[in-house]
Amino acid sequence: MFQQKLSTFLRPQVYRVAKWLDECVGQFEAGFNRPLRRCLLCGSGEAGDQALCTGCFDDLPRVRSPCSICGGNVGSARLLHPDLTSAVSPALICGQCIRVPPVYDKARCGLEYEFPADELIRSIKYRAALHWIPPLTCSVSSELDILLDGCQSEQVRLIPVPLHRSKACHRGFNQAAAIARALAVPKRLRVEHRLLLRARATRPQAALAPESRRENMREAFIVDAQRLRELRSIKALTTLVLIDDVMTTGATADECARALKAVEPSLTVLVFALARKSQC
Fold first, then answer.
1. Which residues contact 147 (CB under 8 A, 6 or more apart)?
2. Neighbours of 199 (CB within 10 A)
3. CA-CA distance, 57 to 187, in Å (whole number)?
4. Is the peptide bond before 116 cis (omega within 30 degrees of 0)?
5. Could you tell me whether strands 239-247 and 268-276 are parallel, antiparallel, or unpaired per DSSP bridges?
6. Alpha carbons 244 and 36: distance in angstroms, whole number
7. How are strands ordered across the β-sheet holding 268-276?
8. Which is it for strands 268-276 and 106-112: parallel, antiparallel or unpaired?
9. Helices 175-187 and 117-127, axial angle in degrees (round to 10)
10. DSSP of 168-205
11. Measuring CA to CA, how many Å separate 138 from each of 50, 52, 114, 142, 270?
12. CB-based contact 179:241 (threshold 8 Å)
């Protein structure tokens, strides 16, 4: 009888303790899963989902007067009109595109390759700081919308610029592929990872003079022609978007576009990079 009464008395107490422990575990887990509230750049302010505070987000260096073909900054237009934006300058064309039109159809870059964007991208590429990819892709998402204006999402594929297998093994990841995934998910676009492959190892472009970069990239890429033709016939593919971290002279994008258009000349090949490094 005594044991029965003790059991009846202890049962609600045990239940309360168990419930309290369960709440503690829930709060502990929530602490780990709670989104970062402080800005990754300045360490202050409410960062929200984009991991940057409003001030740092607005201060990222934008391409203010982009060329309507290559996406690079048309420097003279910016000097004459400091407040010029792409919304009021859709027909600007830089001198380089007039002299030598690129193989790809159009390019767009979200940011100028200036501080702090340059440091963040170098951290991604050389120090595997992949946590910088979401805030940067969030900041340039509207520029990708401009590039894809009029395109149907089911007829578009994102293609990360591939690394050679030796460099991919050494680095452990392809930053262009990570950027492509981050851009694709919110827009419900698909990424094709094996459509374009790097046929041979090339020297780092950053170490070369502009005139040497095209020779370095010559015949560096091959295309899975069967897969591309399947996408064209079955999925009605019309547009491919090459994704990269930084665009400088456009030599890499040109060689990728040349390889793709050699298989399907009627394809529209666009280029999108996180940042554009000015050549003037």
1. 106, 107, 108, 241, 270, 272
2. 13
3. 21
4. yes
5. parallel
6. 26
7. 106-112, 268-276, 239-247, 156-160, 190-191
8. parallel
9. 110
10. HHHHSS-HHHHHHHHHHHHHT-EE-SSSEEE-S----G
11. 6, 10, 18, 8, 19
12. no
- ω into 265 cis (within 30 of 0): no
Tens-place pLDDT, residues 186-213: 999 999 988 998 887 776 666 666 667 7
| C-alpha closest to that of 248 among 222, 216, 223 | 216
Q: How far apart are CA 75 and CA 58, in angstroms?
A: 21
CA dist 100 and 97 (Å) reads: 5
Tell me if 237 sits within 8 A of 157, measured CB to CB: yes
Contact assessment for residue 104 and residue 265, using Cβ atoms and an 8 Å cutoff:
no
Tell me the residue type at 91: A
Please report where in the chains the tokens 């201060």 appear, as a residue: 59
C-alpha 124: how far from chain center: 11
Q: Which residue has the tokens 């001030």?
A: 55
Q: With a cut of 50, which residues of the chain have pLDDT below it? A: 2-3, 5-6, 29-35, 77-82, 84, 86-88, 280
What tens digit of pLDDT does each residue of 57-108 get? 888 888 888 888 998 888 654 444 445 454 445 578 888 888 889 999 999 9
How many residues does this entry show for the chain?
280
What whole-number distance in Å separates Cα of residue 184 and Cα of residue 50? 16
DSSP state of 268: E
Token pair 């989104």: residue: 35
Give yes or no for a contact between 162 and 196, defined as CB atoms under 8 angstroms apart. Answer: yes
Identify whether the C-beta of residue 85 lies closer than 8 Å to the C-beta of residue 79: no
What is the identity of the amino acid at 212? S
Residue type, 246: V
What type of residue sits at position 157? R
Number of C-alpha atoms within 13 angstroms, CB side, residue 6?
3
